[in-house]
Every structure is written in structure tokens, then in C-alpha cells.
Write a structure and sequence with these properties.
Distance between the termini: 20 Å
CATH class: Alpha Beta
Largest sheet: 7 strands, mixed
CATH superfamily: 2-enoyl-CoA Hydratase, Chain A, domain 1
Helix content: 40-55%
Shape: globular
CATH topology: 2-enoyl-CoA Hydratase, Chain A, domain 1
Structural class: alpha/beta
Number of helices: 13
CATH architecture: Alpha-Beta Complex
Radius of gyration: 19 Å
Number of strands: 9
Order of helices and strands: HHHEHEEHEHEEHEEHHHEHHH
Number of domains: 1
Strand content: 5-15%
Oligomer: single chain
Strand order of the largest sheet: 1-2-3-4-5-7-9
Mean pLDDT: 91
Length: 302
Amino acid sequence: MSVDTVSHAVHPADSPAPAPDARIEALLRRDSFIERGARSRAGALLDAGSMRELAGPFERIASPWLAMQGLVTQSDDGVVVAKGLLAGLPTVVLAIEGAFQGGSMGEVGGAKIAGALELAARDNRRGIPTQAVILFETGGVRLQEANLGLAAIAEIHAAIVDLRRYRPVIGVSAGTVGCYGGMSIAAGLCSYLVLTREARLGLNGPQVIEQEAGVAEFDARNRALVWGLTGGEQRHATGLADACVDDDSGAIRAIVAALFARGVPAQHRSQQADVYLAALARAATEEQPTPASVRAVYPGEA
């Protein structure tokens, strides 16, 4: 199945819409990726029976900083590192658990992701073509760990840039937490990025923008505005994501495998800064942007 096929299957413009009963049946048959936890998501991507977890919960590598502040810890610090095969190829899946601390990135969780990416790069240098998938469900840095979390995110950025020279690094954000802050930069550094319609991607979250700029600038309660500007469909249409797929585990696994088959892109999106800076220069800042005006500015596919 091609990338375009999967992408277009979400919103077929040239075919009649299915009857309501058919849509309900299709929805009931769907294996929702969003409803899975981080560990289950990793297992759904890897070939059956191949998943092996590294630095798992029984090793109890929890954040020391949350406990000092009287906050509940989690024995995997909200990050699952899974190694296995995807379509028969060595793959490491780094899944962030959005249900723990909003998927925030602290020292331990960040070190698990950066360390796994660095080991994958080392495998490639030794002749083992290991590829990586990062499942983003994160509000960004964990405020309780401040600079340590930021340092960990910087290490993740460096590790992605190192590994993507050998094999693609694919980012997936399904929802419902979204992908924000420094981890949105990590998503931008990936070789390919896959979103669902329910996903959201942005440097700052809606509440942060409203708090800093005021409700007149951005109403965080306006769900149509939030998804219209930062949702998965819009990000794909404006060229900031490579595919927008249904919330279906099989569809997401298929698109990830198809993107790995493409190999390392000739030029990563993050290496096209001139293109995006030129687009920003054309944006009219005196008016509230709309989904349509943003699509008119950015060099997307739609």
C-alpha cells in the first residue's frame, strides 16, 4: 500500500460518501490506535512476537525528582522502549505514555529515548540497519524537572539527527494529548511524520497561547479553531506532516512500513528552513489566521 493511498483513503474526494450504517460498521470494526496505551501501541507496530522491552517497569527506573516534590512516580517514567522487527527489519519503538503526567518529558524518560536512539545509530555504524519510530503524546518538557528535562530533549534532538543519516526516524502522533514544546521540534526533525485527524502539533499549546496573548488572540476553548489550525489534517495539508491517516492500528502500521521503504529522504524537512521562512514572510500578521489562509501560505500538498 502506498503512502498516497493511505493518505487519500482518509478523505476520498472523488468517491461517494459511504452510507451512515456503513460508516458505523467501519467505526466499530476499527482497531483504535488512540485507545491503546504506550506499551500496546508499540506492540501494535512491531511484528507479532518480536517485541522486547528495554529498561522496562520491573527495573523501576522512576524519576527521583517527582518523589521529592510529593508527586506520584511511574516505574517506567512514562516512556516505553521496545525493540523488535517491523516488516522483518530491526526497529526500536519509543512510545510516550500520554496518560502519565501528560506525556511530559523529564530526565529519566528523555534519557531512555535519547539512549535508545544513540544505540540504534551505533548499530548502523556496526552494519546493523536499525530504524526508529517515536510515538509522540507529550505536552513537552516536565516543568517539575525544568532544566534537566530540557537537556534531555536537546539530547533527543541530537540523537535523531545522528540516526536519520543511516535510517529513517519516523514520528507518529495519534492523539489525544498532541505534541507540543521541545518535543514538537523533535517531531519536526524526524525523517517522516504521521498524524491522525485527532492529533495536534504545535510549539505552544492552546492554553499557553491564550494565557500569554489573551483570549482575543486565541480562544483555547474553540475546538474548531484549535484543530483547524493545529490538527493533523491541517498540518498535513500545509506540508508539516507526510501523512494523515485514520485512527486505525493497521493503517498506521502500514503507513509506517511504507515510509521506511522509501528510505532516507534526499532532504529532511528541517533542512528546508529557507522554504518555511519565505512562507512565514508572506503571512499577514495583522489579522487572525484561518485554516484557509495558512494553507495559502505554506507549501503543502493540498
